[in-house]
Amino acid sequence: MAESVAACWARIGALAGTPRRDGSAPGAIRPLFAADPERFARFSRRAGELLLDLSKTSLTEEVLAALLDLARAAELEGKRAAMAAGKKVNATEDRAVLHMALRAPRRAAFRAGEEDASKEVHATLARMRAFTEGVHGGAIRGATGERFTDVLNIGIGGSDLGPAMVARALWTPACPMRAHYLANVDAHAWEEVRPRLDPRRTLVLVASKTFTTQETMTNAALVREWLRAALGPQAVAEHMAALSTNLHATSAFGIRSDRVFPFRDWVGGRFSLWSSIGLSLALALGWEGFARLLAGARAMDEHFLSAPLADNLPALLALAEVWHVNGLGYPARAVLPYDERLARLPAHLQQLEMESLGKRVTLAGTLVAHATGPVVFGEPGTNAQHSFMQLIHQGTTPVPCDIILVARPDHPHADSHRKLLANGLAQAEALMRGKTAAEAKAEMQKAGLAEAEVARLLPHRVFPGDRPSAAILLPHLDAFTLGQLVALYEHKVFCLGALWNINAFDQWGVELGKQLAGAILPELEAGAPRPGAHDASTEGLMREILAAAQGG
Ligand code: F6P
Fold first, then answer.
1. DSSP 258-306
2. Residue 281, CB half-sphere, CA atoms under 13 Å: how many?
3. Are residues 105 and 210 in the same domain?
């Protein structure tokens, strides 16, 4: 009989809480390499172009077997099938979750209930393509007859982070258009981007699933005024398009219907870069680039849907996270892309993972019995090494790292690239190996330090080691491999939702702040807090702000 979920959790807890048979700690990694020269081969897997190496974690065959049993007991494969079948797996919003339909061929025939999701997707893709090619070919121009050279995407969260991350990764000067992203309601952001834009040659996309998000609608109104002031009121129709599910609101805003590129509510914001929300990418990179991105994601979907769990990259990445978070109690994870072009990947993953997995109740509404999503943060290597890596090497809390390496660069500076890769590999090695007291001592003695100095410095020069990292190796960074990489993380998030029995697809936690901001705004407009409406801190800060604003 299959083990129950509770029994699997208990087994994982026992493995994490008891020394191994050889006496080493459950989180130790060094002894695993010492005992098994084949460890790299045993704990690495490939999918498409990607290699995932989990050997520098403390996973053992026994731990992995327990984690795989948990995946089976939690019915991960059944839940995956339910998502692919268009079942309403986002139960709290009563929605299907079908971002996979966005990158699947028409024949894949994804369905959301009665709706032929694939048909809908391909109808929109055809319109996006015609629009993109019309802009690039010059058939679609600005109000003054000039060709569009720049696209400004106004959106926030999932309507910004994914496209901005991909544009940062793949744009080169040879691309057909420049892309700019405006997210923050702080108008300093608009003031920063504005001087780079010529209204006559700028196409503006208002990207918002709901078309009600305060930040986006405020920025959209600012930019609409900018267009009107420069080109006259008629120009808005020529220069603005909308990417949204809310067709009433796009028309009320004044965007003509043939410039609205829809998507459906079964596309979650943080999973939406493959939908019309990615139009800025098609415009900036060219249709072929966008299509390759979708194809890369589709390749990862096919792997995720078909590979056995023990070889399934998203499932394995999720299981390693369960081991780290729930078994060993590590509360955070760092994402370190050793490629400057992936500078915005940590920001994208922060939303993808933390908005999805930052949940404290199960799908049934009961409190979860274990920790859920870890804190995710990151920076490109090597910059991270000169910033927060100190804590990860020698701090009190181990922080597992995802080290993303790209074998072949797109520049001719081979020496720089070798140094970059040497650093990425070295960080992972240093985290795992550490430096023992004996090694640190020998090093200082060799450098000629006096014995008293050696003794004084020794505790500071020891690295505990046994700090885990997962390496993800891409042969090359292009639209196809980036599509695979992003989809890998999307499916990892799905797996964790299934394993933790939480809804990874809602985000009620962002609502309270929005409501309270809605209440504070009129008080700031009126110049005084409503007496008794707030705690003393909020009221005190409001009074200070209002007084300072008057002083300015
Ligand atoms: O931050 C909450 C959120 O709803 C995200 O999930 C979403 O990506 C973002 O706001 C933007 O929402 P919209 O696309 O509706 O403007």
1. GGEEE--TTS-GGG-TTSGGGHHHHHHH-HHHHHHHHHHHHHHHHHHHH
2. 29
3. yes
Q: Are 159 and 117 in a shared domain?
A: yes
d(CA 417, ligand 1 centre) in Å: 37
| Per-position b or e across 189-216, b if 16+ CB within 10 A of its CB | ebeebbeebebbbbbbbbbbbebebebb
Give alpha helix (H) positions in 24-160: 30-35, 39-42, 61-73, 76-84, 117-137
Q: Is 232 among the domain residues?
A: yes
Taking residues 469-485, what's their average pLDDT?
A: 98
Q: Contact, 117 vs 341, CB < 8 A?
A: no
For ligand 1, say whether the CB of 159 is within 6 Å of any of its atoms. yes
Please report the pLDDT score of residue 185 as a whole number.
98
Give distance in angstroms: CA of 148 to centre of ligand 1.
Answer: 28
Task: List, for residues 290-320, the tens digit of each pLDDT value.
Answer: 999 999 999 999 999 999 999 999 999 999 9
Which ligand 1 atom is the nearest neighbour of the CA of 272?
A: 8
Beta-bridge mates of residue 334: 377, 401
Which DSSP letter does residue 146 get? P
| Domain assignment of residue 210, given as a range | 101-293
CA distance 67 to 429: 25
pLDDT in tens, 36-92: 999 999 999 999 999 999 999 999 999 999 999 999 999 999 999 999 999 999 999
DSSP state of 361: B
| Residues classed as catalytic | 355, 386, 514
Domain count, the chain: 3
